[in-house]
Structure formats: structure tokens, C-alpha cells
Design brief:
Blueprint (H helix, E strand, L loop, with lengths): L1 H29 L4 E7 L1 E3 L5 E9 L2 E4 L5 E6 L6 E2 L4 E5 L2 H36 L5 H35 E3 L4 E6 L6 E2 L6 E4 L4 E8 L11 E6 L4 E10 L9 E8 L11 E6 L9 E5 L4 E3 L2 E7 L5 E12 L2 E6 L6 E6 L9 E3 L1
Parallel strand pairs: 1-23
Antiparallel strand pairs: 1-22, 2-17, 3-12, 3-16, 4-11, 5-7, 5-10, 6-9, 7-8, 9-11, 12-15, 13-14, 13-16, 14-15, 17-21, 18-19, 19-20, 20-21
Length: 359
């Protein structure tokens, strides 16, 4: 009888030890510090939100300067970043052949002037003789023809000179307007070919945004509309006005080009920056939009999700199907319902099952 008592006592003791060990392990798990997080409820927007499209900032007045003649570059007078004034010489191209042609043209003009002067004197002399009946009609007609031919020869020589002078303009590339040199594509000694861009010039302080709008939305974009332009790289929102709305997408792959002139601003924006254009258009939505901030989105490859709060106060990652972006918010098409809470920010690295403390 005593043996059974001892066995029961030993078994009971082992159960107590095991139970105490489990309680100690549970206590160790419970002492894990919780990650402090901030949560927010899903925003539901039943109003007509604005349309956001991506765009690129460009200078309103810009030019790629080239030449119509072939020749070696004699001198490049500017560098990238230089400020130039209208009419300033930028590039000089060797024009030795033009100089020779100009000499020939000047000689031709001198010859044509001499012939015209002589023909004019003979014409006036024969005219007086014809009035006094001293020459025949045939002789007068011949002299008049010689005079008209000499006059046409002089005019032709002068026009050839104008042609040469026009070619000289293409051998000396000047600034068509005041601005800043943005690129230099040629150096001294290089061969300049017709149509090849040599220098790029932009006028400062005047910018526009070029945006591409899908065909489903273009009918609601109106000329003269005031829009917001978010410059992401500078975290600045600027104002602008729609100046051009294309009515054809033939050469733009189904997207319609829209130009927006930026208002004068002290923000140091540069040509080439990317921006988001927000058009205040009326859009009829069949259902309410579920919007969450883009900062709360977690990405893994091509998957996008958000951390939510479970019933046991742990983080739970939920994958979403996202729609269009509206400013700093994105529409959730599926995976998150209205009035559900999600984690906006955390003071530590979140993972599935992480203990959290809502602040």
C-alpha cells in the first residue's frame, strides 16, 4: 500500500514541476516588449475625388539649335550652365567655302552693276532719239530689251548675295532668346552635320507640365482649369492652369497630351522633374471609395498590403488589391473594408504575429 502512495506522490510532484515549467515559459513569452504603433480607420470617400496623373516639368521656351550646313566646328563659345542673351554667338563653324562664294557673288554684283549702268545710259539716249524720230521702232525695242536684261541681271546678283548671307547665319549659331545652356553636344574640331543638335537652350523661370491623360478621362479636362501640381522630389504643391488639351492620341499610344503652365513661384524647380497633376474633375463613382495613405502600404515584390490589428493585439499582414492613386492616398479595391483599422506607423519592425501596443 505504501508503494502505491509513493508512486502517486512522485507522479504528482512531476506534474507540479512540469506545470511550473510551462508557467515559467508562458511568463517569459508574455514579458516580450510590445511594439508601439499608431492605427487609423479606413477613410471612405463618397464624394467625387480629383483625377491624378503623372507629368514631367519642362521649360516653356526651349530650343535645340542645329545648322543647315556641313563643316568643322571652329569654336564653341559657351558651356553647360552658362547664361546667354538673345543674339549672343554660341558656335562658329568653318565657313571658308562660303567666304569664297561670297567673293564670287560680290564680283558678279560689280559686273552686273556696270552692265546695268551702261544699258541704262544707252536706253535713255535711244529714248530721246526715238522721240525725235531719229531711230526706228526696232532699234528702240532692242535697246529696251537690253536694258531690262541688265536690270534683271543686277537683281539676280543681289539675290545671290542674300542667299550667301543667309548661309552665313547657319555657320554662326546665335541664341534665339535669352536663357541658360542645358546641353552641349559638340566640341571644337567635330564635324557639324545638317539637322544635328549642337546646343540646347532653355529660358529660366517659365515652366510647364506635360501630362498624359487616358481616354476615359480626357473629355472632362477643360482648357483654363486651375490644377494642383505635386512635385514629389521637393514635397511641394504648386498651382498651374491648363493651356492645351490634345484631341488626338494617334501618336501617343492612346494617351492624350495636356499642357499646364506653372504659376510663378519661388520654389527652385528644374526642368525634367517628375510631378503629379491633380485635375479637379467630376467623376461619378458607382460605390464609395476606400482610401488609405500610400505611406502605410507594405510591398513585397509585386504584392502590396497593410498591417492590421488582430483580436489578440498582434500585427497581421493583409494583402490588398489597389486601384488609382489620389494625391497621398490610394484606393483599395479589395482586401480591406470600411471602418476597419490598420497600422499607420510603428516604432519597431513589424511582422506577422508581432505583439503591438496601440498608442
Amino acid at each position: 500500500m505504501k508503494k502505491y502512495i509513493y508512486i502517486i506522490a512522485i507522479f504528482t510532484t512531476s506534474l507540479l514541476i512540469t506545470s511550473c515549467g510551462s508557467e515559467e515559459k508562458k511568463a517569459a513569452v508574455d514579458t516580450t516588449p510590445a511594439i508601439a504603433v499608431k492605427v487609423s480607420k479606413v477613410a471612405v470617400n463618397s464624394n467625387t475625388p480629383f483625377l491624378s496623373v503623372s507629368g514631367k516639368i519642362e521649360a516653356t521656351n526651349s530650343a535645340d539649335l542645329s545648322t543647315r550646313m556641313m563643316g568643322y566646328v571652329k569654336n564653341v563659345h559657351v558651356n553647360v550652365g552658362d547664361k546667354v542673351r538673345k543674339g549672343q554667338l554660341l558656335v562658329s563653324i568653318n565657313n571658308t567655302d562660303l567666304q569664297a562664294k561670297k567673293g564670287q557673288v560680290n564680283a558678279g554684283i560689280t559686273q552686273a552693276k556696270t552692265a546695268f549702268t551702261n544699258a541704262e545710259k544707252n536706253y535713255n539716249r535711244f529714248k530721246n532719239l526715238y522721240e525725235s524720230k531719229s531711230v526706228t521702232q526696232k532699234e528702240m525695242d532692242d535697246m529696251t530689251a537690253n536694258y531690262q536684261m541688265a536690270k534683271a541681271g543686277l537683281e539676280s546678283a543681289n539675290q545671290m548675295k542674300n542667299e550667301i548671307n543667309a548661309q552665313f547665319a547657319y555657320s554662326n549659331i546665335t541664341a534665339p532668346f535669352s536663357g541658360v545652356i542645358t546641353s552641349k553636344n559638340i566640341e571644337v574640331g567635330d564635324m557639324a552635320n545638317p539637322g544635328m543638335p549642337l546646343i540646347s537652350l532653355e529660358a529660366p523661370d517659365e515652366f510647364e507640365v506635360i501630362a498624359m491623360v487616358p481616354e476615359t478621362e480626357i473629355s472632362q479636362i477643360k482648357k483654363g482649369t486651375t490644377v494642383n501640381i505635386l512635385v514629389k522630389s521637393m514635397d511641394k504643391t504648386l498651382k498651374g492652369k491648363v493651356t492645351e488639351v490634345s484631341t488626338s492620341a494617334k501618336n501617343t499610344g492612346g494617351q492624350y497630351l495636356v499642357k499646364i503652365n506653372l504659376d510663378k513661384t519661388e520654389v527652385s524647380i528644374l526642368s525634367g522633374m517628375f510631378a503629379t497633376v491633380q485635375f479637379p474633375v467630376e467623376r461619378k463613382t458607382a460605390s464609395e471609395l476606400v482610401l488609405i495613405p500610400t505611406d502605410a502600404i507594405v510591398t513585397n515584390g509585386q504584392l502590396s498590403g497593410v498591417y492590421t490589428v488582430s483580436e489578440t493585439n498582434t500585427a497581421m499582414l493583409r494583402w490588398l488589391r489597389l486601384g488609382r492613386t489620389y494625391g497621398n492616398n490610394v484606393a483599395v479595391l479589395s482586401g480591406l473594408n470600411a471602418d476597419e483599422s490598420y497600422i499607420v506607423s510603428a516604432e519597431g519592425k513589424l511582422f506577422n504575429g508581432a505583439k503591438i501596443s496601440i498608442q
